[in-house]
Write a structure and sequence with these properties.
- With about 80 residues, the chain is mostly helical.
- The chain is built from four helices and no strands.
- The longest helix has about 35 residues.
Amino acid sequence: MSNRPLSLQQKAFCKFKAQGYSNEESSLRAGYAKSYARDRSYELSANPRIKAEIANWKAKADEKADEIFAGQIRQKLMSVEELLI
């Protein structure tokens, strides 16, 4: 396995894949040529470093969603508390 950092296109593929796009759509959105996107998407999705980066993006998205959800709950609790005062 190469120790080279992921390219910008590879990182973009990971980001779009983590957002729920298909392999091919993620490749297209990352800037791979349409004629090459399908084949490249399968190569990318089989790469362990790419898989790890996708998991990292998903974890970040989950953390952000949890923060947003917690903030919404705090706002609702404050609203209820104001009604009780």
